Amino acid sequence: MTVGNYIAASGGMAALARLEAVAHNLANANTAGYKAERPVFRLRQDVQPAPTEPLRMTAGAQVVQADTVFDFSTGPIQATGNPLDVAIPGPEFFAVRTDAGERYTRQGIFQLDPEGYLVTTSGRRVQGTNGDLRLPPGRVEIAEDGGIYVEGVEAGRLKLVRFADPPPLVPEGDTLFAPKPGTAGTPVPEDQVHLDPASIEGSNVSAVGSLIELVDVSRSYESYMRALQQMDQVSGHAIDDVGKVE
Amino acid sequence: MIRALYTAATGMEAQQLTIDVIANNLANVNTTGFKKSRADFEDLLYQMQPAPGTPSTTTTESPTGVQVGLGARPAAVSRLDLQGDYTQTGNPLDVAIEGPGLFQVTLPDGTLAFTRAGSFQIDNQLRVVTPDGYPLSPAISIPNSATNITIGQDGTVSAILPGQTAATQVGQIQTAFFANPAGLRALGRNLLQQTDSSGPPQLGAPGQNNLGTLLQGFLENSNVSVVEELVGLITAQRAYEVTSKAIQTADQMLQTTNAIVQ
Predict the structure, then answer these.
(1) B70-88 pLDDT, tens per residue?
(2) Among A232, B21, B75, B89, fewest CB within 10 Å belongs to which?
(3) pTM for the whole thing?
(4) Closest Cα of chain B to A207: distance in Å?
(5) b/e per residue B37-71 (b: at least 16 CB within 10 A)
(6) Residue A225 to residue B257, Cβ atoms within 8 A
């Protein structure tokens, strides 16, 4: 069949992938510490055109999704007054212990579990400079320098980790990020830690940007489908009219 | 079907939960001792098509891989145990707790529950009870026709008995402290119940570590701030609206697809 059909269809698939990313971003418009995702596309160059053929005529002109990139910019920081909320104004991450190894998050919504460990909303232990943070009972305060004080006595320090820019991190859900194979972050020295206590970093999804993208996605999808329809009509004419035996 | 439809729906459900929680906070803006809640969310699992680091050509590799997020899920609705402000009532059986700590009451089935709402009354058996009739634990009875009931900062309850001039101690209010008060289960009626997550209560006389101190003649107001809740309401409503646009767009795209085949 006409290669153009597949090229137009690949454009439609790309629009769908963009829609999925926007839907995911919007679903997380109120997820603290969420980082917006964006699909990136490329030409399907693995099908090499014959030397005499221009690229646009071959299957190599199809568009495929190459990557998903994440916008690691800081979301809006809002004060909550809750002593166990903490936001990072800089580009660092909190470290969290999981069964699969250390993971990183920007969602500084912490709680205490029954044993007194500082945990994330999904119950994973937050890491301090000396491993798990187990706090004695009492009124907890997290200071700007990452120190955790219970009734005014220091009970541990939050571990912050810094990565290269852009951070080589892959999301795993639960607002956790895993380092890509072969990469690792560096712990931030204690004297360079700076936090916004009793605050939450909101999601960095832009509602206006997402809406504009939705309009663009919808219209470009329509164009691809129209192109598909036109090419189908051309094929139809070729079959019905040109080949007509009078 | 278009995956985006379901992804966007998880977001709309998340916003709906936020609005439910805010509605409950606002409804309790004048409930004594009420602690506001907040819905916290997390992103759902990501579907990975080629995994990160998969070779894209012989010399380069896909740095992140294609990952499709599948929406949001509620991670926790946490109660924020922030201090509410106080109203002076002058009623001798209104008691507020300053600092952490909870009153302990006995439910009709004999189990214990905990509350911050210290608006007590005396029932027909002369016990000190909550407005719902649940007695304080350990029970405190005020002798008949006793006057000048005084509740000290440390929870000692004294009163002047008929025919006497000096006050006599008639009971001792104990308060409870939990390692993780956010883990307590709300029963309604201002009551909280112990769970595995909250840990066991540590009981004692107020004034000791973490048990707060008592303030007679005052009530603790709810810690709901109407302005904050309204801002949250607007944010959630707009997020709901914009997420519904993603569903609309998915619907339009399906329509377009259907229209190409006549």
Answers:
(1) 899 998 888 888 889 999 9
(2) B89
(3) 0.85
(4) 7
(5) bbbbbbbbebebebebeeebeeeeebbbbbbbbbb
(6) yes
Model pLDDT for residues B8-36, shown as the tens digit of each residue: 999 999 999 999 999 999 999 999 999 99
CA distance A83 to chain B (A): 9
Mutate to test the interface with A, among B5, B22, B37, B43 (most CBs of A within 10 A): B43
Query: CA A15 from chain center: how many Å?
Result: 18
| Amino acid residing at B168 | T
Distance CA A60, CA B64 (A): 22
Q: Considering only CB atoms, which chain B residues are within 8 Å of A16? A: 2, 4, 253
Residue from A46, A68, A104 whose CB has the most chain B CBs within 10 Å, to mutate? A68
CA B80 to chain A, closest CA, distance in angstroms equals: 7
Tokens representing B23 are 């509605």
Q: Which residues pair with B185 in a beta bridge?
A: B193
Give the number of other CB atoms < 10 A from CB of residue B152: 17
Residue in B54, B50, B52, B46 with CA at minimum distance from that of residue B3: B46
The residue type found at B114 is F
Contacts of B199 in chain A (CB under 8 A): 114-115
Nearest C-alpha neighbor of A203 from the set B18, B6, B80, B25: B18
8 A C-beta contact, residue B185 and residue B206: no
